[in-house]
Every structure is written in C-alpha cells, then in structure tokens.
Amino acid sequence: MISRNENPDYVNSFLDYSINTLNKSTNSVKEYNYDLAMFLKYIKVIYHLTDETDFEKITYNDVDIDTIRKITSRDISNFLSYLATEHKSKPTTRARKASTIRIFFKYLFFKEKLIDTNPAENIETPKLSKRLPKYLNLQESEKLLETASNPDNRNNLRDFAILTIFLNCGLRLSELVNIDINDIDFSENKMTVIGKGDKERVIYLNKACVDAIKDYLEVRPKEGIKTDKNNSKNALFLSERKERIGRRTVQDIVYKELKAAGLATKNLSAHKLRHTAATLMYQYGKVDIRALQEVLGHESISTTEIYTHVASEQVKNAIQRNPLSR
Asked: Is 131 part of a structural domain of the chain?
C-alpha cells in the first residue's frame, strides 16, 4: 500500500476529496493512488526529472504543481500507449488509469483551480469489448443449492444460506460478508446492505432467503464469538473461528460447492453468482431493467443493460436451434 508521505500534497487532497465528496470506496481510492503514482513517475522520466529508470525506485512527491501545468493531452495519450507496449496492460487496466487521470485533472481544474487548462478533457479511453457475463442456468443453480444442502457438510445450513442469498439477491461478495443480523427485518422480510461507495439500499427477501437465514440462525454460534474490530458479534455469517466470515472463506465455500455439484469447470466465482441472480431475475422473472438496477445497486443503467444482451443471445440461440436451420 502506498503511504501518503510518498504523494505530493495535491494528490492527497484529491484522494480526500474522492472519499469525502465523491463518496468513493476505500478500494477505489487505493486504485486512484496507484494509478496516479505510476503516471507521475512516468512524467518524471519523460520530463527528464530523474535518471532512474526502475519505476519501483522513482519517487514522485517532488513533482510540483508547475510540472503538472505543463502536462499535455499528448503526454497522457503517450502514457496509455506506454502501458500497452511496455507493460502489456489490458484495455481494462488502461481504461481504468485513463478514468483516474480524467477525474484527477477535472478536480485540479474545476475544484481547486490549480491548472489553467484540462489536458485530460478529451483523451480517448481504450475501447473495451463487451463480454457477456458467465452465469449458471436455472437447472445448474438448482443443482448447486441441492448440493450445498447436503447434511454431511457440518456447515451446510450456513453455506446453503450464503448461496441462496447470492443466487436470489445478487449481492456483491463485500456486501454479503458485511451483513449484520440487525440489518434484517423479518417483520417485513427485507434487508439493508451497504454497497459501493457506502451507498445503502434495501433488498426485499423472498421466502427461500428468509427460510434459509432463519434455519441458519438456529445453529449460528451464540457463545464464544470474538469481540473484534469487525463487529463479529453482530455478523450474520460466522467462520468456524467464530468471527465474521471473510471474503476468502466465502470464495472457498463457493468453489467447494461448485466442485461438488460438478460445475467447477465453468470457471465461476462468487461474483459470477451475482451475474446468475441478475440473469435469472431478468429472463425468468421478467424484471424491469430499472428495478434490476436498483436490486443490484448499479450506479449506471448501462451496467445493468448487459443482462439484456444475455437475453438477446438466448433469442439468437433459439433460432439457431430450430431443426429447419440445417
């Protein structure tokens, strides 16, 4: 992790602004910091402000605002090209760095007025190919849940509840591990979750979720739960060490159950179960795209629209499977 001492003051101000005003998550701000660190090191090299060529050894807290004012759109484009040619960075990586740089210069130009022009205003983001998300079909989802309910697994009620919530509610991994018992209102069958950027949303639980959670709560440890900074005493899901379950543990549970169900070869993960839930809701539940956006906690409708592409792909396949197609 980059220390704030390694950053120029204007970078730290931008990171603070991202957290306090833009309400960005801690992980997003860390990525901003890494992206800007690499960009400023690159600037030092091309502006001949250092003789060091090893990026790991280049310091950048001495890149002053006067240097920033000299940066042009060509410098930024060249940086993105450098990432592609020298680092073999994927388009998604370059697109993220381009986005970081764009937000950063917008902050310096509009918010702080530290620069007279915005060199990142018209930079082009690397074009990304839209890939359809991987997901389980209905039969595979049912098989996974059936496998997870196997009583031979001493944690079967917990693991079944985890998979049931994933497949019915489409939660992110971070959202699931952070659920507290008092986030659930059984009188109205709803649950409050904290999504990206600490945005709160309400998930209405169906009967399968309510039953699975209640069954698990019957066997959830009540004594010996660790008192820690993760507020484990209030956590819905606990590990065998009687502390709030971690992301890695949940990922291991998902993989173990996928493998037991004979589905591990599909290269799926906890995040893919979120795709599965969204796809099933859209295809079978005929859920409105705006309602689906709300359920998933997507900031932009364009993110949710990928599930309409999945449906279109099914329509295409249906025509191809017509016996007269030969």
From this structure: no
DSSP, collapsed to helix, strand or coil, labels residue 214 as helix
- Positive or negative: CA dihedral 160, 163, 169, 174: positive
Q: Pick the closest to residue 18 from 82, 99, 72, 92 (CA basis).
A: 99
Per-residue pLDDT in tens (0 to 9) along the chain, 326 residues: 578 899 999 999 999 999 999 888 888 899 999 999 999 999 999 999 999 989 899 999 999 999 999 999 999 999 999 999 999 998 889 999 999 999 999 999 999 999 999 999 988 877 766 666 788 999 999 999 999 998 988 999 999 999 999 999 999 999 999 999 999 999 999 999 998 878 899 999 999 999 999 999 999 999 999 888 889 999 999 999 999 999 999 999 999 999 999 997 767 788 889 999 988 888 888 788 888 888 888 888 878 887 776 666 655 565 555 555 45
What's this model's pTM, rounded to 2 decimal places?
0.65
Active-site residue list: 172, 196, 271, 274, 298, 307
Q: What is the CATH number of the domain that holds 39?
A: 1.10.150.130
CATH number of the domain to which 307 belongs: 1.10.443.10
User: Quick check: 130 and 309 in contact, CB under 8 A?
Assistant: yes
CB within 8 Å of 220: residues ≥ 6 apart = 158, 236, 238
- Specify whether the backbone of 242 is left (phi greater than 0), alpha (psi in -120 to 50) or beta: left
Domain tally, the chain: 2
